[in-house]
Amino acid sequence: QKEVEQDPGPLSVPEGAIVSLNCTYSNSAFQYFMWYRQYSRKGPELLMYTYSSGNKEDGRFTAQVDKSSKYISLFIRDSQPSDSATYLCAMTRQAGTALIFGKGTTLSVSS
Amino acid sequence: EAQVTQNPRYLITVTGKKLTVTCSQNMNHEYMSWYRQDPGLGLRQIYYSMNVEVTDKGDVPEGYKVSRKEKRNFPLILESPSPNQTSLYFCASSERGTAAFFGQGTRLTVV
Fold first, then answer.
1. CB B102 to CB A100 under 8 A?
2. Cβ(B76)–Cβ(B47) under 8 Å?
3. Which of A37, A64, A108, B4 is the most buried (most CB within 10 A)?
């Protein structure tokens, strides 16, 4: 079993939809959870960063961590065509140590 | 402007010819890291560094070397490149080890 699993998609939604992106993981020692957005031919950019369980909200984005289920989610409300990108989850046991990434989910938002 | 700068952006080289990809950040970050991104395999960490003279292996360190002699620079060295190291490489930095800032990427082809 891979340490981090992420459905590659592609996921296609109409503008204005609520998008749910998810990752599962196997290592219960992971404590820090990140979501990145990557546009084509660009480097990833950090969207959200969460420590341990719970929710975190930033504008249209909400990150959720359920450590009991080893499951993390990123919700995008009122999705826009500019949200079309690949979304990567990542996690680590301890800040400043090895980061493990999911393979990314490609999202397409049509106007 | 806060940024992570990688050079070169594109490189074609021959098997066995030593090369260095440079990475520099201007944000005084302690944490720097290198990744390779391959279709179907996602983003995988090669090496990371929590501070000057402190480096550690990530997921796929074989065939690579790094050094961290100064806080701002973190070069990636391929002593004897092979075709299976053909990939898109990213450098990243952050304060907390979340890889918050990525460079633009270096597309390496080894023939």
1. no
2. yes
3. B4
Please, are residues B43 and A88 in contact by the beta-carbon 8 Å criterion? yes
**Which residues lie across from A70 on neighbouring strands?**
none
Residues of chain B with pLDDT > 70: what percent? 100
The residues, any chain, with a CB within 8 Å of residue B68's CB and separated by 6 or more, are B32, B49, B51, B52, B53, B54, B55, B74
Query: Inter-chain contact B98–A32, Cβ cutoff 8 Å?
Result: yes
Q: What is the pLDDT of residues B55-91, one digit of tens each?
A: 999 999 999 999 999 999 999 999 999 999 999 999 9
pLDDT tens-place string over residues A77-88: 999 999 999 999
Query: Which residue in chain B has the smallest CA separation from A89?
Result: B43
Residue among B43, B66, B90 with most chain A CBs within 10 A, to mutate: B43
A98 lies within 8 A of chain B by CB: yes
pLDDT for position A1? 62
- Burial of residue B104 (CB within 10 Å: 0-12, 13-18, 19+) is middle
- Is A40 in the B-facing interface, judged by CB distances under 8 Å? no
Task: Chain A: give the shortest CA distance to residue B106, in Å.
Answer: 10
